[in-house]
Amino acid sequence: MLSFGVERASSSVIQDYTMDSRTYKIYHEHGFDSRQHLEHYLSDNPEMAFGEDFMIFPMENLKKTFSEGFFSSGHIKGDILIDLSVGSMVHHLYAACEFFTNIIVLKVTDRCIMELKRWVDERTGAFDWGHAAKLHADIEGESDLLQEKEEKMRLALQHVAKVDLGKENMMDPIVLPPADCIISAWLLDSISKDQNDYMGYLRKFSGLLKPGGHIILIGVLDATYYTISKEKFHLFRYDEDFVRKALVGEGFIIDYWKVKKKTAESDLMDYKSTIFILAHKPK
Fold first, then answer.
1. What is the per-residue pLDDT across 245-270, written as a single tens digit (0 to 9) for each?
2. What does each C-alpha distance from 108 to 46, 84, 172, 262 come to in angstroms?
3. 151, 154, 156, 162 alpha-carbon torsion, rounded to 10°
4. How does pLDDT run across 156-204, given as a tens digit for each residue?
5. What residues are paired with 270 via a beta bridge?
């Protein structure tokens, strides 16, 4: 049974970063073609430039994050994981479904929900995530369990719901139970117009965590836009110092930090590095 309470974290003053172009569309305000997003950035198309940065890098670090022995106290696990990520991606959740009983996926657009559910329900025309399942199985050293990995993933993604980012309780009138872990991949980058937006959304996400809970952020540094179907969408530009101060300002303790310089060359998107961060809320 899902029920919830929200806790707040304090904020701090951080150097201002302004939006580079207010002519770009905003993900949660204008929406985008979720299938084209997957095709451009996360497909197995040989011409897709972002496999190393946006698939392999996050999946390897998530495997490391959830593996036994990463912390002296053992691996991160629990009852509830909440995913707040851009688009209809699932590849970043393969490792997580091994360690959490329930995965709750929250999306800001109906189109992204429909695209995700098409895959979960194995409907005709669903995006093929077979390459991500194989990558996960290879990383885990369990290539012989490929079909089992996909089935386990589909079973894990039974709780998909829409959120309203403008509300204090994004799920109003539903109240979610406090989560053991939150994963947010590229969402803060896409919805934040400036530093105040970023801090406000981070605070809302923090409010969904139980004391001692972990947050995993995946994003891009020094980016200003990404392109879908020839339309440019805004990305909030920030650097390592900004996000570190943002997390500390909201009361998080940073456990793990990894930055990978861009390997993809494409005019679809400008960015300098991909970042992976694990932090936790003190008990």
1. 999 999 999 999 999 999 988 999 99
2. 30, 9, 13, 28
3. 180
4. 888 999 999 988 888 888 888 999 999 999 999 999 999 999 999 999 9
5. 225
The whole-angstrom separation of Cα 255 and Cα 214 is 9
> What angle do the packed helices 130-140 and 57-66 form, to 10 degrees?
50
Distances 206 to 15, 66, 200, 236, 282 between C-alpha atoms, Å: 21, 20, 10, 19, 11
Residue 213 one-letter amino acid: G
User: Token pair 């994963």 is at which residue?
Assistant: 183
What are the structure tokens assigned to 31, written together? 């929406």
Give the strand order in the sheet containing 253-261. 159-162, 100-107, 78-84, 179-185, 209-221, 273-280, 253-261
| Position 42, amino acid | L
